[in-house]
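Task: complex structure prediction.
Instruction: return structure tokens for all chains below.
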Amino acid sequence: MSKIYVVGIGPGEYEQMTVRAAKALGSCDTIVGYTVYVDLVKEHFAGKEFLTTPMKKEVERCRLAFEEAARGKTVAMICSGDAGVYGMSGLMLEIGMEYPEVEVEVVPGVTAATGGAAVLGAPLIHDFALISLSDLLTPWEKIEKRLLLASEADFVICLYNPSSKKRHDYLKKACDLMMRYKAPETVCGIVGNIGRQGESCRVMTLEELRDTQVDMFTTVFVGNSQTKEIGGKMVTPRGYKNV
Amino acid sequence: MSKIYVVGIGPGEYEQMTVRAAKALGSCDTIVGYTVYVDLVKEHFAGKEFLTTPMKKEVERCRLAFEEAARGKTVAMICSGDAGVYGMSGLMLEIGMEYPEVEVEVVPGVTAATGGAAVLGAPLIHDFALISLSDLLTPWEKIEKRLLLASEADFVICLYNPSSKKRHDYLKKACDLMMRYKAPETVCGIVGNIGRQGESCRVMTLEELRDTQVDMFTTVFVGNSQTKEIGGKMVTPRGYKNV
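Output:
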């Protein structure tokens, strides 16, 4: 039986992946992925065959991986961050139904929420909600509803895909929605290029975040009512008692 | 300047930690942690000094780490999963304010939400909320409110600390609350001992989950309205369009 690993390589460069992920990639004949992610790990896996497809060609990329595996190759499909958070593991399992002779194993990784949190300090710590602002596959009304209800519930909120060329004002819209329940002085943070060259972060208020321009490589953290700034770090306490 | 790494070692055994985490532990003189987590990694870091404290002694554990570092040792404080998700990084940064001569670096890891998701298939994939059912540090009313609002928002919900000796009926109570908005046939999954010996998982409906007894080593996943069972796996699609 041939095998495909669906591997989350973590938010950045080689060292951000787990030992298990590195072993899985090391055991493969072929590594498939979006060009940018393949370039992040390529030098550590010399001698492997690399197959890349451009962004938004996810279904094609999955089929490519299964076709390779069906030919007897051991294949790794790599994803940035975790394979199961806005990643490829779901699609791989769905398409995998057409290839019963190929075994699929999902190898988890550090997602941008926890990778970025470590850069900012400790913004999550307790309950949080993860929301993507991309309306490519989700109606904006659904995103809006989630922003409102998650704010009402006083979750720390981590925003993925906060911006793109077409969606340059989405973060501002999201902040306005969250401010219906969260105070303007709520402690927030942004992290860019997590675990990669050019990594940067900034702590600010929700009001300031509203007027901050971010790019698609940025992960945004919006605190809960207890989140504080401590020595330049964004820190959420472990609970609501004795604070 | 002496240094403390606050390291998330991932959900289970050595291989679940990142290459970066393994390097950080390798560079340390002293590894501090809760006994169970130290035992999971001990054999891979021979020659290190290990200091353990029992559960619930978190503040003492943090001070122990800083006292060691203040004596010039390079120290790692290890946490299960990710250091910033119900982990020690927040407390370490807070207590660290008393030790300005010690630098604190947080090293992220795979949290149980993504580690467990990989075992079940792809239950998260899209927006999700993470909620702890432990009311040790959070009033139950707050937990209840979050369960209701997260369900109303149609998040996939991942539950940490779903049970303990004192809280044996909390998962049942949580399921009843979620069923006010989520259908009884919502696809759910549980994973036990993620990444460790005895790892197990099961896919079931929300109605079945309500009557399932889980222990404190179990992570629970409650699907959104689109979550499906595919070939025995729990899979959430990437969005709400074209489904």
